[in-house]
Amino acid sequence: MWSDAEDDLFDDFADSGPTAAGGDSVRDSGGTSLSQRNFSGKAMRAGELPTDTQRRDRVVVNYNTDHGEAVDPSNEFEKMLLREGIEVRCDENYKKYMYIGSTTSDALVTKLESNMRVQRYKDDLLDAFEKALEEFDNLSTYLEPTHSSCGIQESIFRVLIICRSSQAKAFDLLMGHLQQLQKEKQNSLNLSQLCIAQIRFINRIYHSRALFCSIFERDIEKWAPEIRNALISSIPEVLTDVSVQLEAVRELHSLLLRDVKTDPIGCKLAIISALSLLNCDAETSTKVNHILTLYRLLDVLL
Question: How far apart are the first and last CA of the chain?
């Protein structure tokens, strides 16, 4: 037997109601066709979804979850950044970080690059940056990612390395502080790794020769093995100019032949890995391939 609901449904279909000649639906006094009514009695057009099934609310995603409090600039560099809309803030644990507002790090690079076309601004900014780095706490603040209403962005240090006008100077400052961290040794590993992270996967290198000097003027063979090997592995990314790569190959080949005291095997493997990615002359290439063959054979024997 049919249920009461099913009987009512068939009754609705059976009761076609009054129709005009030709089978057209009769319109009510308001001019609306009876076939254009929904079950709630409200007018609707053919193909239109009932209003009860339409989504009325839109979900708005807000990435600005930053709740830090702005603090006064502690040096001239931070004052200059504040004029560009970049604040120093503190989180709930009173840890300082940089907040760049509603922009992105890419947009910040473009803005600072435009400003540094004025030589005086460039000199003042980089001099103030160098002086600010004399405070050890500022180093970690500028190395760590910035915050914005768009989410986490690149660090201030990396932004300056990406900028064409400040790349050479910022990179040299980074290498200088990395060298200093190796002398301190204690509690510097994480900060040293942050330094290495600043120079990885940079989209464009403008001053390969200056960066080459910044690297090989340091006593990298005496650095902590993890940091030294990571720096050596990054050299093919940092030195993109072919002529500079040839010089880097000679420097690395010389380092390969030295008596490195700490983790000599790891150091040699990092050098060989870097050499295999650099351009070099035929003679050096033959030597590198010979060394690679020897190490592969040694690896098999071990």
Answer: 84
Class of residue 99 by CB neighbours under 10 A (exposed 0-12, middle 13-18, buried 19+) = middle
* pLDDT digits (tens), the chain, 302 positions: 555 555 554 455 445 444 444 444 445 544 544 444 444 444 545 555 444 444 444 444 445 567 789 999 999 999 999 999 999 999 988 999 999 999 999 999 999 999 999 999 999 999 999 999 999 999 999 999 999 998 999 999 999 999 999 999 999 999 999 999 998 765 688 999 999 999 999 999 999 999 999 999 999 999 999 999 999 999 999 999 999 999 999 999 899 989 898 999 999 999 988 998 998 777 777 777 777 777 666 665 55
The domain limits of the chain are 65-204, 207-301
Distance CA 48, CA 252 (A): 71
Q: Evaluate whether 17 touches 34 at the Cβ level (below 8 Å).
A: yes
Cα dihedral 86/91/96/97 (nearest 10): -40
**CA–CA separation, 174 and 154 (whole Å):** 15
Neighbours of 26 (CB within 10 A): 11
> What b/e sequence results for 31-44 when a residue is b if at least 16 CB atoms lie within 10 Å of its CB, and e otherwise?
eeeeeeeeeeeeee
**What is the DSSP code (8-state) at residue 185?**
-
Distance CA 26, CA 17 (A): 8
Calpha distance 125→138 (Å, rounded): 15
